[in-house]
Amino acid sequence: MNPIDIVRIEQEARQLRAKELQRIEGLIAARLGLYGRLLAATALSALAAIGESLRPLFSWNPKTGHSS
What's the number of domains the chain is made of? Predict the structure, then answer.
């Protein structure tokens, strides 16, 4: 029988673990980026809706109804 190379097995296990952690970090980064873009788009939409609803309050001009 061949002897078991424990050191080599541990090194390979560490390498595989490091690769898996990098893969998971990449997935998390991609999802956070997506959630960030969705949040920004939602906030922009909300601000645009609020701006449209407030526009009549600031566009009223009382002088337009009176002629001299």
Answer: 1
Q: Is residue 23 in some structural domain?
A: yes
pLDDT digits (tens, 9 = 90+) for 10-31: 999 999 999 999 999 999 999 9
Alpha-carbon distance 10 to 36, whole Å? Answer: 38
Helix (H, G, I), strand (E, B) or coil at 28: helix
- For residue 19, the model assigns a pLDDT of 98
Whether 32 maps to a domain, the answer reads yes
**Could you tell me if residue 36 is inside a domain?**
yes
